[in-house]
Amino acid sequence: MSSSTLENRPQRPEGPAEAPLTLDEPAPRVLSFWDQSAFWANLGVSLFAFSGAYTVLAPDENGVPQLSIAAGIAAMIIGTLVGGLMLGLAAVPGARTGRPAMVILRGLFGARLSYAPTVLNIAQLIGWGTFELIVIADAAHELFGGGPRWVYVLIAGVLTTALTIWPLGSVRLLRRFVTIAVGIALVWFYIQFVRAGLPDLTAHPGASGGGPFGADWSLFWLAIDAALAVSISWVPLAADYTRHARSERAAFGAASGAYAVTQIIAYTLGLFALVLAGQGGGVYGPFLTVTAGAVFFFVFVLREADQSFANVYSTALSIQNLVPRVDRRVLSVGLGALITVLALVLNMDDYYGFLALIGSVFVPLLGVLAADFFLGRGRTGWNTAPDAPARWSMVVSWLGGFVVYQLINPGQLGAWQRFWEGVQDTIGLTVQPWMSASLLSFLVAGVLALVCGRIAGRRGTD
């Protein structure tokens, strides 16, 4: 088999090493299981888990939660565990091939066809990076009791950009210092919130009906999809970091385990804060009013920069799939400036709709990738060369999964939602409570990938 068809493992250098500047250079295998666990564990603890915790309560069009806190926690745990396993699956190809996430998609779709998911990934990562700076600025504004918002955005943007210049050094920094501080802060807030006394977690302000903790089952599965979408948002960039892993097992274990554990802890804490804040109250308030709350909340605000760092760095690597020889440092500086400007002029009003749209694109993509990589052509090696031939069968499988997602959960984005609801009416589809858009689109896309891949293989067109 030619070298363009089967990737050669990069050699593991001795001592510290940094990420390569272009795609022409090999990726050093220097990240241990604990390095990666610290990285993913920190990504699981986000200010989004506090400010966006309401998304797992199935808010209606007016933003009023429809599920109880207890039901939201249950849905969040299920969605996060499933999402963690999906994240682990996405981590393995990077560890095996030593290639970034979007370059790996050359093997799945072909070089030129990989540009489509690459452009979508660039768009969603810029959006996430922008949202992260907004969240950091809002939290800092509340933490310090005011001040010009643009100053906080600027500081967060500069810190984010600096971290992307030395990405592997930033990961090691997380392991040595930040993870410990974050762990202490989480324990502290749990103790303080329990001491403050939590109200009845089974009470909820909206819908009534059967199901767990008084929750409507259809809303319960919608909440699971919302939680899963947060985990899935990291899938398109997992290989950007696990390509530096020392083993596939370490990459899978760290991505699936460490991330899921800390996201569950953080989201539960965020839901507790939501209860303590009360309807209409600021979700950050409970963190700042407890003993030494400002000190420990500052840890969360400062640590949030690793989220924006991950998004910016992976955006740069995604762009390199289009222009392989551009220095990632130049791209990172430009992207850092871009998201800083966007954070100054945008807001987070459509956060939930953004999550749903991300899930509808990348959940089925992962289904196709996992099926073909572990059960299809990937078992003998993918061609990730710049001239890798098109594999339309995989694109068709991806689109099939995407359609399934939209038919079950069209989201809440105005005309987009109305279009898919119209399709539902046309084909006579009634969405049942047990239908999870994420799980069904993942399975449908995976099955289609296996079937279409075998048909194309027999015809010699794949």
UniProtKB/TrEMBL annotation:
Pfam families recorded: Transp_cyt_pur
Residues annotated as transmembrane: 39-57, 69-92, 113-137, 149-168, 177-198, 218-239, 251-277, 283-302, 330-348, 354-376, 388-408, 434-456
Topology relative to the membrane: Multi-pass membrane protein
Stretches the record annotates as Disordered: 1-22
GO cellular component: plasma membrane
Subcellular location(s) per record: Membrane
The UniProt record lists the keyword tRNA processing: no
InterPro entries per the UniProt record, alphabetical: CodB, Pur-cyt_permease
GO molecular function: cytosine transmembrane transporter activity
UniProt KW keywords: Membrane, Transmembrane, Transmembrane helix
Family, similarity comment: Belongs to the purine-cytosine permease (2.A.39) family.
Protein's name in the database: Putative hydroxymethylpyrimidine transporter CytX
Native species: Actinocorallia herbida
